[in-house]
Amino acid sequence: MNEKPPSNRAPAKGGLNSEIQSRIGHQLRAMYDDVVRQGVPDRFADLIRQLDSQDAASQIEATAKKDGRD
Amino acid sequence: MPLTDSLRDDILATVPSLRAFAISLSGNADRADDLVQETLLRALAHIDSFQPGSNLPAWLFTILRNLFRSDYRKRRREVEDADGSYAKTLKTQPAQSAHLEFEEFRVALDKLPQDQREALILVGASGFSYEDAASICGCAVGTIKSRVNRARSKLSALLYVDGAEDFGPDNTVRAVIGGGGS
């Protein structure tokens, strides 16, 4: 298979140009990993720790009421 | 199973990718973190139903995805006419920046029908197998494969071919809502 020069155009129909496919894959992972690298925010570590010693079901009700959700 | 220390650690270790998934789905960091919080609360409340040795991330992603779906339907009813609000927000941002390509990508991703977007993210970014992604989305493996393929084709058309297809946010959102779905 011949190597094609970089192109901004995809084939008209059907199969995706492999260079475009790899760019899409790369951008998708870059966007995703950007968030993954932020780790676990304190809010969630605290939440789990707090729930550890409590009844999770009653906590859900309390939180749902408090948040009121928009 | 009961919440052991190691299970709790495993849940916490999944939080970063749950957040990434939630942001990709909702396009909004605050809302994403609320979704993750609800997911954790629900998971812990139903921890007895988790099968030891089964795929914990897939279980948590399933909970988050279902929460997002029901929340999304609720919100659409509340704001019927606010078509593609997230895409619009992004489009009004200044275009000239080093992140232009990145922003364009996010806007394009947001234009995909929800089914296709989540399939593409689960397989292409979260690293789930087609089988796991199918179980998370409650559909057949072949359906996931075809959604991923269609998502890639549409992204390619949106990003790299000018005016190749017409599937504005209005149409796709209506299709998703109208389709009901899983």
How would you sum up this structure, described in words?
The complex is a heterodimer of chains A (about 70) and B (about 180). Chain A has 3 helices and no strands. By secondary structure, chain A is mainly alpha-helical. Chain A has a domain at about 40-65. Chain A starts with 17 loop residues before the first helix and ends with a helix. By secondary structure, chain B is mostly helical. Chain B has 2 domains: about 1-80, RNA polymerase sigma factor, region 2, helix turn helix motif (Rna Polymerase Sigma Factor, Chain: A); about 85-180, Arc Repressor Mutant, subunit A. Chain B has helices at about 5-25, 30-45, 55-80, 85-90, 100-110, 115-125, 130-135, 140-160, 170-180. In chain B, α6 (about 115-125) packs across α8 (about 140-160). The radius of gyration of chain B is 17 Å and the shape is globular. Mean pLDDT of chain B is about 80; it is low at about 80-100 and about 165-180. Classes of the chains: A mainly alpha (about 70), B mainly alpha (about 180). Chains A and B meet through α1, α2 and α3 of A and α1, α2, α5, α6 and α8 of B.
Based on the model shown, name its key terms.
heterodimer, A: about 70 residues, mainly alpha, 3 helices, about 60% helix, B: about 180 residues, Rna Polymerase Sigma Factor, Chain: A, Arc Repressor Mutant, subunit A, 2 domains, 9 helices
